[in-house]
Structures are given as structure tokens and as C-alpha cells.
């Protein structure tokens, strides 16, 4: 598990660098795609960034890359929302993830349904353990 996690982090960093971003930038884009638009403060909380300037700089980089845009919240014009733009993201990093998905698909085709169910359960549990530890560490850092 330790090696898998290290390789996953290094892979994400390599993907980010291939399109001129850093790992946190790419994770922020992924979080916006999966969880929807966010205010800069919400995005900071999702990514764990604590300095307001760091969040603004990240959003600026992502906007320059064409991966996100800022807009005013229609319900509260004082709020700014950051939204991911899927088409440029897919054009930038889609080919890499497509190659990986193709390799995984070939491998998964060799597994039984029971093996796939076990793997899915294992990965879901690993994600939960990681999420809980992230929350714990972030709470410890603030308190």
C-alpha cells in the first residue's frame, strides 16, 4: 500500500507537470470536477491550502491554463465561484488518463467478478482511511 500511494502521488505530480501545473493545482481541478464549483475559501478547505494568497495564486494559474473560470454566484453576487472547464482539462490530461485507463481495462478483464468486488472494496476502504487521516492531520495542525 505504501508503494502504491507513493507511486500514485508521483504519477499525479508527473501528470500535472506535463501540462505546466503542480500537484495541488491538478488535485484542485479534480476536486472541482467531482464536487462542483466552489468559492476560493471552499476550494482552500478541499485542498488543505491555508494561506489566502496561495489559493488565489493557484486559481490564477488554473485560469491562465484555461482549466477554471471565476464567476459571480447568481444567488449572492458578493460570492465568487470557481468552476472547472472540462473540455480543456480533458484535452490537456485526458490522453494520459486514457492510456492508464486502457492498461487497467486490459488487466481488469483478466479478473473474476469476485476479485473486482474485493479490489473495489479494498480501494474504497483505503480512500476512507486516507480521508479520515487527512481530517485528523488537518485538525491537529489547526488546533
UniProtKB/TrEMBL annotation:
Record InterPro entries: HTH_MarR-typ, MarR/SlyA-like, WH-like_DNA-bd_sf, WH_DNA-bd_sf
Superkingdom in the source lineage: Bacteria
Domain HTH marR-type per the UniProt entry, residue ranges: 14-116
Transmembrane domains' residue ranges: none
GO BP terms in the entry: response to stress
Pfam family, one: MarR_2
GO molecular function, one term: DNA-binding transcription factor activity
Protein's recorded name: MarR family protein
Organism: Microbacterium azadirachtae
Amino acid at each position: 500500500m505504501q508503494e502504491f500511494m507513493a507511486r500514485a502521488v508521483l504519477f499525479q505530480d508527473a501528470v500535472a507537470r506535463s501540462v505546466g501545473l503542480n500537484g495541488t493545482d491538478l488535485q484542485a481541478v479534480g476536486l472541482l470536477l467531482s464536487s462542483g464549483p466552489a468559492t476560493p475559501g471552499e476550494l482552500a478547505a478541499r485542498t488543505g491550502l491555508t494561506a489566502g494568497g496561495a489559493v488565489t495564486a493557484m486559481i490564477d494559474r488554473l485560469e491562465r491554463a484555461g482549466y477554471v473560470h471565476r464567476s459571480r454566484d447568481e444567488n449572492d453576487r458578493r460570492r465568487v465561484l470557481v468552476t472547472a472547464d472540462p473540455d480543456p482539462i480533458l484535452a490537456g490530461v485526458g490522453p494520459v488518463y486514457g492510456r492508464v485507463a486502457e492498461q487497467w481495462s486490459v488487466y481488469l478483464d483478466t479478473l473474476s467478478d469476485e476479485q473486482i468486488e474485493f479490489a473495489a472494496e479494498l480501494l474504497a476502504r483505503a480512500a476512507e482511511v486516507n480521508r479520515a487521516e487527512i481530517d485528523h492531520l488537518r485538525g491537529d495542525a489547526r488546533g
